[in-house]
Amino acid sequence: MIAKERRQDLNATTMLGQGKTVVQAEIDSACELADFLRFNVMHAFELAKYQPISIAGSGSINSCRLRGLDGFVAAIAPFNFTAIGGNLASAPALMGNVVLWKPSDSAVLSNWKIFECFREAGLPDGVINFLPADGPVFGDAITGSQHLGGINFTGSVATFRHLWKQVGDNIHEYGCFPRLVGECGGKNYHLVHKSADLDSVAVGTVMSAFEYSGQKCSAVSRLYVPASLWPALRTKILAIRAALRVGTPVDYGTFTSAVIDRESFERNRAFVEHARASPDLEVIAGGNCDDSVGWFVEPTVVVTTDPTERMMRTEIFGPILTVYAYPDTDDFASVMALVRSTSDYALTGAIFARDAGAIEEARDELRMSAGNFYINDRSTGSVVGQQPFGGARLSGTNDKAGGPHYLLRFASMQAVKETTVPLSSWRYPYMDD
To answer: I want to staple 214 with a disulfide (CB 3.0 to 4.6 A). Which of 64, 226, 319, 403 is the partner?
Structure first.
């Protein structure tokens, strides 16, 4: 249904409600959502296949089964991916849980369309409950209920921390220890080695930074490049950026549209103004912000001379890329240490290099810097079943949506031992010696 007869309803509501271009809506609300539903069912069947050892002739049979949690799961969805809303609600339900689904205020219609699909497909009433609500009111209600079994969340660090604190404050009131699953965004990087293909870097960086106005959790917002390569790469990035069309998502020639709301617009504008005022920063492209019709922030490129500047550390969630040209005299190990230590996030990152040794070194040295690590590819675009998604540090609990392990967070396993012969004696053999 989602892949066929309701496909364009989902695409249209995602385009109009969340400002996605036709291709961004298609890969989200149609393709990724259908993938989540199909792969989660496959993963659930595979997980259920595991059974413990039963020794032949021992007189007992051992088995395990997956059950739902002891309580309801609250699914709190973001605006930026329609598919995430559907997955946050449906994955716990698939594993046997009742779900309270709070959509983002900025994505109610597209999420409602998914809920309509679930009901039309035969989902019983009361299994998934669609509850648009004020965020703090919803959060207080779920964390104040003794029946809370878990929270499945995608959104800001501040909100997830608040929910976690509320759960901790109320821990003595619950009938179980609630499972907390969260994905909170990132300060994602592209690291360019001196051996990199600069054309590939330019294309990948522009796509990752500016698609959907940088409002993907995985979007690159900090770029590290050798100083000797920066002039050539700068020319290539700015040439591509100049060709991008910013406008209404219903125009098929549009590459990216407006940011989601006024709060986002003002946050992005404040960072642009900061960049223009700072002696360590230079805006070399874009920077125009226009709220006369919609909340449009021009794709913006900023260069910094300070690799620890706030724009290299803070999540902006908009179409702003900050570049640091590192000295060629710096050894690559120290550059990787800088990349690894600058941000409190660890969601996505990419290394661009043709030197196999540099790639292997980066694969090892940057293993804790990103939950999803890319080699010669952009930091966005994870595919369900191919690159399970999630990060650590302040990026979240790294439970890997789109992979099999994610579902175990919403299941409680029961081990069963069935003895097939009577219990005949309480005495142990040593007692008769």
So the answer is: 319
Task: Report in angstroms the alpha-carbon separations of 222 from 186, 294, 320.
Answer: 11, 26, 9
Confidence band, pLDDT 50/70/90 cuts, at residue 48: very high
What is the distance between the alpha carbons of residues 391 and 128, in angstroms, rounded to a whole number? Answer: 27
Distance CA 309, CA 394 (A): 19
What gap in Å lies between CA 128 and CA 112, rounded to an integer? 12
β-sheet bridge partners, residue 24: none
| Residue 258 · residue 296 · CB < 8 Å | yes
In the three-class reduction of DSSP (H, G, I as helix; E, B as strand; rest coil), residue 72 is classed as strand
Tokens of 235: 């020319």
If you search the block for the tokens 């594993």, which residue do you land on? 95
What does the pLDDT average to over 7-17? 97
Query: Distance between CA atoms of 212 and 209, rounded to whole angstroms?
Result: 9
DSSP label at residue 253 = T
pLDDT of residue 65: 97
Contact partners, residue 283, CB within 8 Å, separation at least 6: 272, 275, 276, 300, 301, 302
Q: 63 — phi, psi (to 5°)?
A: -150, 165
Q: From CA 108, how far away is CA 13, in angstroms rounded?
A: 9
> What pLDDT score does 433 carry?
72
Q: For the beta carbon of residue 421, count every other beta carbon within 10 angstroms.
A: 8
Amino acid letter, residue 152: N
- 344-399 per-position pLDDT tens digit: 999 999 999 999 999 999 999 999 999 999 999 999 999 999 999 999 999 999 99
Closest CA to 348 of 399, 382, 309, 386: 382
pLDDT in tens, 267-323: 999 999 999 999 999 999 999 999 999 999 999 999 999 999 999 999 999 999 999
What pTM was estimated for this model as a whole?
A: 0.95
> Which helix H or strand E contains 168, and what residues bound it?
helix 157-169
Strand partners, 348: 372
Q: Is the pLDDT of residue 432 over 90?
A: no
Q: Burial, 164: exposed, middle or buried (Cβ in 10 Å; 0-12, 13-18, 19+)?
A: middle
First to last CA, the chain: 71
Question: In this structure, what token pair is assigned to residue 245?
Answer: 């069309």
Q: Which residues are catalytic?
A: 183, 217
